[in-house]
């Protein structure tokens, strides 16, 4: 086999043979097949076939498809980013609305609390005033009763003194009418 | 010859992996012969279809792994074309992408054991480079007519220097496809050949005592160079593509 190739590229074989000898072996080499011009037409023919097939497969099918996929992806990403941007704006808005609602509710609650407090205070004031008035009336009544009782008590002391004096006079053997006893007792009590 | 080599012990055939041979027997390689070139280019095409057609079948907004890789490649090259060649070069994007994907898949598939690497052949890379060269030149003349020649006329330089610079610019312009193609093929070929040379040293342990040291070393070297080759496989595809973009920019905006 090597012999035929050898004849095909004689000079090349010589050169390679020298190289081979320099490398330390005396064997014949096949030379540089790259310089064997008899195979050029064959290689170029198949190269052209391969390139044409690759070119058409790529330019008709693969490259438009990949280009479309890449463009599609770019579009998807862009629109997704826009949608995300929009959603973010919406979220911010919603948060604002939420905060507003909370603030409103809080002030409303404060108002209601204040109102309720005022009402309770009013009721309380009314109740207090009424209670005060009742207490005052009760106190006045009690004071009158006490005054009455005290007066009654003085009257009772005079009666008891009269009776006691009359009993003493009769016990000592004397006799006195009620009128003189009473005047004597009232004289003493004045003193 | 084979027996000769076996008697010596080690078999050095670092270039055999680059031989173009018919898949279904015979020795003659005609234009239409189905060869290992055909096979590995077909595998590359199938991989391209698997990744870019089947992988993106779902058209998912949230991509799966395969679709992510396809989109990554798309975005990588699209950005390169837009950044390097300018916004009006985007209509050349499928063309540039085809080149990039073909080279990347050829390079990486070539790293499989027993694989054939189409991009290690100067015929293939020269065809690609000349195609780029012609495209760029035609686009330049169609878009700008004679003004495209302004690319060679460095108007910011002092007047006496301009003819000299123009000569240099013209030469460098025509050298472009040469460096463009040899850079790719050379890189791919050299890496693969070096791996093969180290691989030939690996079985030395079966033959002589020196092998105790040489075999682990060569295996280590194969591993290291393989890692480097993975890097090179991508970088060379990238370099080829970005140079294509640079040339496109020159064609679309020839003013210095």
Automatic annotation (TrEMBL), chain A:
InterPro entries attached to this UniProt entry: ATP_synth_b/b'su_bac/chlpt, ATP_synthase_B_chain
Location within or outside the cell: Cell membrane; Endomembrane system
Keyword Transport: yes
Region (Disordered): 1-22
Entry's transmembrane regions: 44-63
Membrane topology, as annotated: Single-pass membrane protein
Source superkingdom: Bacteria
Keywords, alphabetical: ATP synthesis, Cell membrane, CF(0), Hydrogen ion transport, Ion transport, Membrane, Transmembrane, Transmembrane helix, Transport
Role according to the record: F(1)F(0) ATP synthase produces ATP from ADP in the presence of a proton or sodium gradient. F-type ATPases consist of two structural domains, F(1) containing the extramembraneous catalytic core and F(0) containing the membrane proton channel, linked together by a central stalk and a peripheral stalk. During catalysis, ATP synthesis in the catalytic domain of F(1) is coupled via a rotary mechanism of the central stalk subunits to proton translocation. Component of the F(0) channel, it forms part of the peripheral stalk, linking F(1) to F(0). The b'-subunit is a diverged and duplicated form of b found in plants and photosynthetic bacteria.
Family: Belongs to the ATPase B chain family.
Subunit structure: F-type ATPases have 2 components, F(1) - the catalytic core - and F(0) - the membrane proton channel. F(1) has five subunits: alpha(3), beta(3), gamma(1), delta(1), epsilon(1). F(0) has three main subunits: a(1), b(2) and c(10-14). The alpha and beta chains form an alternating ring which encloses part of the gamma chain. F(1) is attached to F(0) by a central stalk formed by the gamma and epsilon chains, while a peripheral stalk is formed by the delta and b chains.
Record-given protein name: ATP synthase subunit b
Gene name for this UniProt entry: atpF
From TrEMBL, chain B:
Pfam name, any one: ATP-synt_A
Transmembrane stretches, start-end: 29-54, 92-110, 122-142, 148-175, 195-219, 225-248
Coiled-coil boundaries: none
Zinc-finger among keywords: no
Membrane topology: Multi-pass membrane protein
Keywords carried by this UniProt record: ATP synthesis, Cell membrane, CF(0), Hydrogen ion transport, Ion transport, Membrane, Transmembrane, Transmembrane helix, Transport
Keyword Acyltransferase: no
Subcellular location as annotated: Cell membrane; Membrane
Job description of the protein: Key component of the proton channel; it plays a direct role in the translocation of protons across the membrane.
HAMAP family: ATP_synth_a_bact (MF_01393)
PANTHER family hit by this protein: ATP SYNTHASE SUBUNIT A (PTHR11410:SF0)
Family: Belongs to the ATPase A chain family.
Annotated protein name in UniProt: ATP synthase subunit a
Taxonomic path: Bacteria, Pseudomonadati, Pseudomonadota, Alphaproteobacteria, Rhodobacterales
Gene: atpB
């Amino acid at each position: 086999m090597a012999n035929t190739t050898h004849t095909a590229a004689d000079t090349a074989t010589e050169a390679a043979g020298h190289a081979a000898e320099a490398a330390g072996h005396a064997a014949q080499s096949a030379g540089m097949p790259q310089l064997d011009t008899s195979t050029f037409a064959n290689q170029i023919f198949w190269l052209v076939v391969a390139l044409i097939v690759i070119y058409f497969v790529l330019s008709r099918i693969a490259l438009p498809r990949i280009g479309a996929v890449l463009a599609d992806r770019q579009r998807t990403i862009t629109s997704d980013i826009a949608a995300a941007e929009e959603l973010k704006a919406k979220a911010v808005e919603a948060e604002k609305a939420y905060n507003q609602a909370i603030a409103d509710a809080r002030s409303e609650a404060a108002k209601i609390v204040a109102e309720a407090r005022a009402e309770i205070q009013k009721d309380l004031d009314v109740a207090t005033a009424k209670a005060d008035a009742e207490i005052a009336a009760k106190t006045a009544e009690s004071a009158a009763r006490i005054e009455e009782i005290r007066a009654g008590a003085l009257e009772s002391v005079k009666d008891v003194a009269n009776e006691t004096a009359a009993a003493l006079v009769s016990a000592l053997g004397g006799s006195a009418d009620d009128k003189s006893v009473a005047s004597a007792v009232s004289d003493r009590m004045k003193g | 010859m084979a027996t000769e080599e076996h008697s010596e012990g080690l078999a050095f055939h670092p270039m055999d992996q680059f031989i173009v041979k018919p898949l279904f027997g015979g020795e003659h390689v005609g234009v239409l012969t189905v060869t290992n070139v055909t096979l590995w280019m077909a595998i590359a095409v199938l991989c391209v279809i698997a990744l870019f057609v089947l992988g993106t079948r779902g058209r998912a907004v949230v991509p799966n792994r395969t679709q992510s890789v396809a989109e990554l490649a798309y975005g990588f090259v699209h950005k390169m074309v837009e950044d390097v060649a300018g916004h009006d070069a985007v209509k050349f994007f499928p063309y540039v992408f085809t080149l990039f994907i073909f080279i990347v898949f050829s390079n990486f598939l070539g790293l499989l054991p027993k694989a054939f690497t189409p991009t290690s052949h100067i015929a293939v890379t020269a065809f690609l480079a000349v195609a780029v060269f012609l495209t760029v030149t035609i686009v330049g003349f169609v878009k700008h007519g004679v003004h495209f020649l302004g690319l060679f006329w460095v108007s910011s330089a002092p007047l006496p220097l301009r003819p000299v610079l123009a000569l240099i610019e013209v030469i460098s312009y025509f050298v472009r496809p040469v460096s463009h193609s040899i850079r790719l093929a050379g890189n791919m070929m050299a890496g693969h050949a070096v791996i093969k040379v180290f691989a030939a040293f690996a079985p030395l342990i079966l033959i002589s005592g020196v092998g105790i040291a040489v075999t682990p070393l060569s295996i280590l070297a194969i591993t290291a160079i393989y890692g480097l080759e993975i890097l090179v496989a991508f970088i060379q595809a990238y370099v080829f593509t970005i140079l294509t973009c640079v040339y496109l920019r020159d064609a679309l905006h020839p003013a210095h």
